Structure formats: C-alpha cells, structure tokens
Amino acid sequence: MRILFIFFLFVSFLSTAQEMAVATSATPTQELQEEPHLNWFTSLEDAKKKARSTKKPILVYFTGSDWCTPCKKLEQYFLHTDEFLEQSQNYHLVYLDSPYRDDIIPMKDKKANKKLADQYDVTFPTIIALDHTGKERNRVERFSGDDPRYHWNFMKENKAIFRL
Questions:
Q1: What's the whole-model pTM score?
Q2: Boundaries of every domain in the chain
Q3: Cβ of 8: how many Cβ atoms within 10 Å?
Q4: Fewest beta carbons less than 10 Å away: which of 38, 99, 127, 135?
Q5: One pLDDT digit (tens) per residue for the chain, 164 residues
Q6: CA 47, CA 98: separation in Å to the nearest integer?
Q7: Contact predicate 44/94, CB 8 Å
Q8: Rounded to 10 degrees, what is the CA torsion of 139, 145, 114, 118?
Q9: Burial 115-150 (b: 16+ CB within 10 A, else e)
C-alpha cells in the first residue's frame, strides 16, 4: 500500500510539472512583451547639468523598488507603457530608489536618495516635474489599484507647462 501511495504521488508530480512547463512555455507564434527601454539618470545633479544644456525638463521618479507595491504597479501600468516611452523622449528621467535592502544600490546613493526624498517631502511613489533649471513645476503622488489616469493628467499638464 505504501509503495502504491508513493507511486501515485510521483505520477501526480510528473503530470503537474508537465502541465506547468506547457503552460509557461511560449509557442513560436507567441511573442514575449519586452519592457520599454527608458534612459534613467540615477543622479539628480547629473540630470540637472544635462537639462541646463539641452533645455529639456526633468521627471524625477521616487520609488522603493523592493518594498513599495504601488511603485511596482505604477511601473507596470504607467512607466512601462509604449505611450510613456514615447512621451518620455521630451524629458530627462531620474530614477531615485529608496530600497530597504542594502544590496540593491550603493549605500552612498541610498543616503543621497533618502535626503532628496526628505527634501522634496515625497510619499512613494511620486513623480516630480522640474524645469530645465531644476525648479519644481508639477507633481503626482501615490498610485492606487491599476488606474493611471491621474498620471496621464499629470503628463498632459506637463505638456502645457513646458510647451511640449
């Protein structure tokens, strides 16, 4: 009886493993969606220097990459869209991460990003629009559910503010 039970478990395991492999493998006609490629600065000062020479505005994204669930959803439903990729060409993008873990970014960057988050008094996630001189002109905070409409309104407002 014990051998029969072990045999049953083994067959069940093989069957489940096979189903999982079939369900997760892409067929030749399926294409896996790649994330849009965004060019992020990780230093606000570097972005400001570049913006002064190009006269382009700056979008500063404050995130907690390893702990902030709304940040992850914002990336999925807003930042990783083709529409944002297209609109982002009008800006210098800055990614300021404040992770809990110490192995994600260098400690000096983590401290600098924390200082900037405190300076700008942000909640996570926040995106701030700065003009090419570094002056704050607009911001959008938080993200709820899977609805990026406030973020698209933010981008629309930025078009008017920066005459894009």
A1: 0.78
A2: 55-164
A3: 10
A4: 135
A5: 655 445 444 445 444 444 433 333 333 433 434 556 899 999 999 999 999 999 999 999 999 999 999 999 999 999 999 999 999 999 999 999 999 999 999 999 999 999 999 999 999 999 999 999 999 999 999 999 899 999 999 999 999 999 99
A6: 18
A7: yes
A8: 50
A9: ebbeebebebbbbbbbbbebeeebbbbebeeeebee
Nearest residue to 51 via CA among 133, 161, 129, 162 = 133
DSSP state of 105: S
Give, rounded to a whole angstrom, the gap between the first and last alpha carbons of the chain.
75
- Report the CATH superfamily, name and number, of domain 55-164: Glutaredoxin (3.40.30.10)
Q: Name the token pair of 105.
A: 């970014």
